[in-house]
TrEMBL record:
Designated name of the protein: NADPH-dependent stearoyl-CoA 9-desaturase
Domain Fatty acid desaturase: 74-339
Superkingdom of origin: Bacteria
InterPro entries on file: FA_desaturase_dom, Fatty_acid_desaturase
Xref: CDD domains: Delta6-FADS-like
One Pfam entry name: FA_desaturase
Length: 413
């Protein structure tokens, strides 16, 4: 089942966790103190390039309704929307660029090209998901209300549709993110919660309505003024670009939260949680995927999901350098640094979603030692080993997991 004692699961003492927190604070401090003109140029050039890319896409779609031009314009528009959402909107609204004191590039003023109202997303994402990362019944991103992604979620007959639900979620991720921030389940409640839900619903409808008019009325109508294109071709191009953006955003997000090694936690972990314990939970509850410069950029640098969860308000262009030091800390404290190729992480996510569409009685691994669900109880049969007898090197979580795997393999022989 989910982890109830983070320190016990991680095989770290209170002093270890405090020291880990101090070293992570040092990484944050070093990056904050080095922020300057180079970083400001990066985000301003990124915004300018994204706007130029979107303008190019609009011109291409207006220039011709022929299939090659239409698909080229659609692909360019999808890329522009991905960059705006992932590398700009998501990161600006995290407050990563607030240190510049630029009123245009500020978390409180940026409104992204998406159905979700920015202020709703900031509240749901920054102040809920990042604080309560992967804590059951507190983090809505654990399954997005419809997916079963851990055995701690009791199997229900509707879970048999896990795979098609995830496909629909991917295709309509833009709408899912928007609706997630509204709390529709509280719409008909009396009192402050109901009032808030109704107000958010009205604001969401207003924002989504503007997006619909922009993408499916205004831009197609402008395109129709060109003798070389028509209303319908641009409408279809906008719809396809939005779906491509949704599929890509969904893929990047699930690769950071649902692959093997992205742990789940119970609410007991929050009791008296220290700064070091919060850091540790973020490290254990997130996963990375390997990426070069292009994939890093297109993912909004969320290929470094571990570092993003450790330092959510540090500029995204600095996460790659932070990852080198975070990875070294994981090695020092014998903690797993959960990463793999993008294809591997995405595949593991779909495998987990497929597997958990079935009742537990059809699953082989135990509820405390499964790829998608682990707890400190998986180590109950192990004798503690604090250090290697020869080298004196620390022996912690990574070593303990290896010992469990070897024991399980030996039993099957």
């Amino acid at each position: 089942m989910a982890i109830t004692d983070v320190a016990a699961f991680a095989h770290l003492t209170d002093a270890d966790i405090e020291n880990l927190g101090t070293e992570l604070d040092a990484i944050r401090r070093d990056i904050e103190e080095s922020l300057g003109a180079r970083d400001a140029r990066y985000i301003r050039r990124t915004i300018a390039a994204q706007r130029a890319l979107e303008l190019t896409a609009r011109v291409m779609l207006a220039g011709s309704a022929k299939r090659p031009a239409k698909w080229a314009g659609t692909a360019t528009l999808a890329a522009a929307k991905i960059i705006e959402n992932m590398e700009i909107g998501h990161n600006v609204m995290h407050g990563q660029w607030n240190w510049m004191n630029d009123p245009e590039i500020h978390s409180t003023t940026w409104e992204w090209d998406m159905n979700a109202a920015s202020k709703h997303w900031r509240n749901a994402h920054n102040f809920q998901h990042h604080k309560y990362t992967n804590i059951l019944d507190m983090d809505d991103d654990v399954g997005y209300f419809i997916l079963r992604v851990t055995r701690d979620q009791p199997w229900q007959p509707y879970n048999i549709g896990n795979l098609p639900y995830n496909l629909v979620l991917a295709l309509a991720f833009e709408w899912a993110i928007g609706l997630q921030t509204v709390d529709l389940e509280k719409y008909f409640e009396d009192g402050p919660d109901g009032d808030t839900a109704r107000e958010r619903t009205r604001e969401f409808i207003t924002k989504a309505g503007r997006q619909i008019v922009k993408d499916y009325v205004a831009f197609p109508a402008l395109t129709a003024l060109s003798p070389a294109a028509n209303f319908t071709s641009t409408l279809k191009a906008n719809a396809v670009a939005n779906v491509i953006r949704s599929i890509w955003a969904h893929a990047v997000i699930v690769c950071g939260h649902f692959p093997d090694g992205a742990e789940k936690f119970t609410t007991t972990d929050m009791a008296g949680e220290t700064r070091g314990e919060w850091y540790l939970r973020q490290m254990l509850g997130s996963a990375n995927f390997e990426a070069g410069p292009v994939l890093r950029f297109l993912s909004g640098n969320l290929c470094h999901q571990i570092e993003h969860h450790l330092f959510p308000d540090l500029p995204s262009n600095r996460l790659h350098e932070a990852s080198v030091r975070v990875r070294a800390l994981c090695e020092k404290y014998d903690l797993p640094y959960t990463t793999a190729s993008f294809a591997a992480q995405y595949g593991k996510t779909w495998r987990t979603i497929a597997k958990l569409s079935l009742p537990n009685k059809f699953l082989r691994a135990t509820a405390d030692d499964a790829p998608e669900t682990r707890s400190e109880r998986m180590f109950a049969h192990l004798k503690p080993i604090d250090a290697d007898l020869i080298t004196g090197r620390r022996r912690g979580l990574k070593t303990a997991i290896t010992r469990v795997r070897r024991r399980a393999t030996a039993k099957t022989r």
